[in-house]
Amino acid sequence: MAVPVAAVRNVTKRFPGVVANDGVSLEFNAGEIHVLLGENGAGKSTLIGILAGMQQPDEGEILIGGRPVRITSPRASLELGIGTVFQHVLLVPSLTVIENLMLGGPWWRNLLRGPALARFRELSQLLGVEIDPDAQVGRLSLGEQQQVEIMRALWRGEKVLILDEPTSMLTPQGVKDLGAVMKRLRDKGVALILITHKLVEAYELGDRISVLRLGRLVGALPPERKRAMSEQEVTDAVIEMMFGTVAQHERDAEILVGRGRRTHRARHVDRAGPPRLQARGLATQATRGACPLRGVDFDLWPGEVLGIAGVDGNGQKHLAEMLAGQRAAASGTILLDGRDITADAVPERRRRGVRYVTDERLGEGTVGAFSVATNLVLKEIGAPPFFRRGVSDWDHIHDHARALIKRNDIRTPSEKTPVAKLSGGNIQKVLLARELNAEAGVVIFNKPTYGLDLQNTRLAHERILAGADQGLATIVISTDLDELLEISDRIGVMFQGHLAGIVENGPDVERKVGLLMTGAKAA
Amino acid sequence: MDSLLTEAFLTSLLFGAVTAGVPLLLAGLGEQVSEKAGVLNIGIEGMMLFGAYAGFVAAYCSGSFALGFVAGGIGGALVAALVVLLCIRYGLNQIVIGIAVTLGMEGLTALLHYFQFSRTYPRLDLAPAWALPLLSDIPVLGRALFTHNPIVYLAVLLVIALGWLFRATYIGLNLEAAGNKPAALDAAGVSVVKTRAFAVLATGFLSGIGGAYMANIGAGLFVPFMTGGAGFIGIVLAMLARGRPVWVLLGAALFGISLAMTTALQVAGINIPTDVVQMLPFAMVMLVLVIFARHSVLPPALGLPYVRGER
Ligand SMILES: Nc1ncnc2c1ncn2[C@@H]1O[C@H](COP(=O)(O)OP(=O)(O)OP(=O)(O)O)[C@@H](O)[C@H]1O
Ligand SMILES: [Mg+2]
Questions:
Q1: Which value does ipTM take for this structure?
Q2: Do A49 and B187 touch (CB under 8 A)?
Q3: Confidence of residue B137 (pLDDT cuts 50, 70, 90)
Q4: pLDDT surpasses 80 at A205
Q5: Nearest CA residue ID for atom 16, ligand 1
Q6: Which site among A90, B27, B83, B99 is 20 to 30 Å from A454 CA-CA?
């Protein structure tokens, strides 16, 4: 049998309070897509961090082409032909797209744009993306940044290509394009490692599937076995490995995989009364690289979930920020319960019950160096009951945090751990726990479940719907159409700054939304 | 008041502005390189001072001004090497180390000077100036701006060179990335430590030359504590310049003029208390900060040590 291109043997990595990898042994073969699955905090990113030279294992060894090596730096990893798409975008926001792609070149050479641009065009075509190479990366939507990150990895990874949740911000079409590229690379003999939380992707793209749980390798499907199984059998086997006995019931499995995807529960929304939120002609100032709003209208009733679909970068970010009060309106009005709140700032809107869950969980959503507990009360700093006369009541804050950690299954060594040390999905849980907890009237979610594992995605969906049942007016922005089909009452599509038609969720909605996404007018 | 507008007065004012402004320009440009790379180099005052001392001693012993500048640059870089070791390699607090370096160099240079020269302050000969052909024939401006030591022209050329370096080279990209998102630079396969070390050494080199200029050209002698806050003005200039060398040049010119005013007003015999006059440049710092500081943009990773894999 051929020697694996890369392999880890008995790798253990500990962090204060957690064993992130516990004696993991895995092999990555040329011409094979190896899918790594596992719940949030299972240790997937840590493992690829070790291969990428970002982390050093405490025990165990790495083999490249059968030879033991030490990957002491990302540079060493790149020199071994390993390219990595990190879970949290590692691009320089102040540089342009093309500059980011050129970063890391030999410093004594001339910086040549020509060849870089040619390569950029080639890769954009391959991935089916349209991004201005001279746009500042910080201005791009996260979905676009993710695509730039993928391009960069393709640019450098010749032998091994690692993708840590590369599809979390992509639309179905983007996922398809990426899948095609991955398969092409596999056929050219590249070893690919894909981390994802979506079992459909694992089944469709993976040749071999391995499952991590609490840092340990708990199961694997080698190619010969996987080939012999149906999609149903593969998902069942994987869920069994991922969650053990927790999800053994048929029904649970069904929901987890979303195989009964059209489980949209028709809810009754009373649209006879006055709407909770009314948007009229919302428009924002254009910024380079980011799509502005060009006249968005909609009404949102209490108890309703309005899904906003569309390719990332069509104005979703501006819409969310404008509703939340973080971005000034160029024109248009926002009415909350009939009252004009267009000029109100964030605290005022918050007081009136507007909540916003950003899609940038690091930076905008949380303060990395602050503890989980502090982040859970971040938007109430200085206000009772957690702060009295300007003094923080730590006992209260920590009690509150422990309760939320338990309720939301946040995996953290303690409530005092800095939030940045949590795994990506667990940071997302902190963000959701904070916003879903407080008294609210309108909630805007921007990609609420990105990076969450199956169980937590389901949990989040259930809670969003429970909120709506209690009368919350809810907006969910997502690039994941399946998610919107599952929880929305109506779905609108953002296209080049317009909200291109809003359709009722129900039979045939997929086709209508698909049409709208390409820019066609609502049927 | 007539005397204020004579040719001689204007010439000496502008000439003095250049002499006072060049060390600020070099310090400001140097600090800008560090700040771009994410290092807040508070020790620059100490680097200038040690550069001034080393430059003076070298010029005094060899009689060569060129050698003086080289020694000044190397002296500044040596001090910078200490900062590299403590702050970049071991990740100690940049502000604490910076202040310590400045205080340490004030003491060290004073001590060394005392050992060598006791309480005497020997002077250098007048430095050679290089009159630029044609340009130096312009009335007033020619004498004031185009009859200087070659290092002055080099400093101005450096503004253009750095502008190009920042914009159009891999080094520029690396510096920008080191200050903006060091993890991204690391992931791209470039050592953050090396990039920042290079930046801090460059800062030391440039500010050391600035110090040597102050001693050898500006004053013609070395006096302990002679930089008198020039390094700190350099920090202010770099912070306000938003990464653009041209803005450092403008700022240095502004401060140069206000510094030259202090001398020129005294020479012109205007009856203002010296203390007030000498306060002028620092009042200027305040004023500029009040007006422009709100618009300054600093790199997000400024002052933060980078530890790979830490989150
Ligand atoms: N640098 C670090 N410092 C401290 N703890 C860390 C660090 N990196 C990871 N951890 C911890 O190690 C565990 C595994 O994290 P990891 O990021 O590998 O999870 P993951 O499987 O990628 O999860 P997700 O699906 O949420 O991205 C988590 O408990 C996390 O808190
Ligand atoms: Mg992860």
A1: 0.87
A2: no
A3: confident
A4: yes
A5: A43
A6: A90
Instruction: Name the residue among B185, B190, B234 with its Cα closest to residue B214.
Output: B234
Contact between chains at B170 and A106 (C-beta distance less than 8 A): yes
Give the chain B residue nearest A85 (alpha carbons): B187
Contact state of B184 with A49 under an 8 Å Cβ cutoff: no
Report helix angle A231-243 to A454-469, nearest 10. Answer: 90
What confidence tens digit (pLDDT) does each residue in A126-151 have?
888 888 999 999 888 888 898 899 89
Residues by chain with Cβ below 5 Å of ion ligand 2 = A 45, 87, 424
A84 and B187 in contact by Cβ < 8 A? yes
Cα A485 from Cα B294, distance rounded (Å):
47
Distance A215 CA to ligand 1 centre (A): 9
Name the CATH superfamily, with its identifier, for domain A6-257: P-loop containing nucleotide triphosphate hydrolases (3.40.50.300)
The DSSP string of B36-57 is HTT---TTHHHHHHHHHHHHHH
CATH code: domain B2-291 is: 1.10.3470
> Which residue ranges does chain A devote to CATH 3.40.50.300?
6-257, 262-353+439-523
**CA distances (Å), A381 to each of A177, A376, A377, A387, B125, in order?**
44, 10, 6, 7, 65
Model-wide pTM > 0.90: no
Average pLDDT, chain A: 87
Q: pLDDT for B139-163, tens place per residue?
A: 777 777 888 888 999 999 999 999 9
Q: What would the pLDDT profile of A475-503 be if each residue is shown by its tens digit? A: 999 988 888 988 999 999 998 888 888 88
- For B282, phi then psi, to 5°, come to -80, -35
Class of domain A262-353+439-523: alpha beta
B37 touches chain A (CB under 8 A): no
* Distance from the A173 Cα atom to the nearest Cα atom in chain B, whole angstroms: 28
For residue A385, is the peptide bond before it cis, meaning its omega torsion is within 30 degrees of 0? Answer: yes
**B181: which chain A residues are within 8 Å (Cβ-Cβ)?**
90-93
3-state secondary structure of A201: helix
Mean per-residue pLDDT, B118-127:
83
Tell me if chain A has a CB within 8 Å of the CB of B35.
no
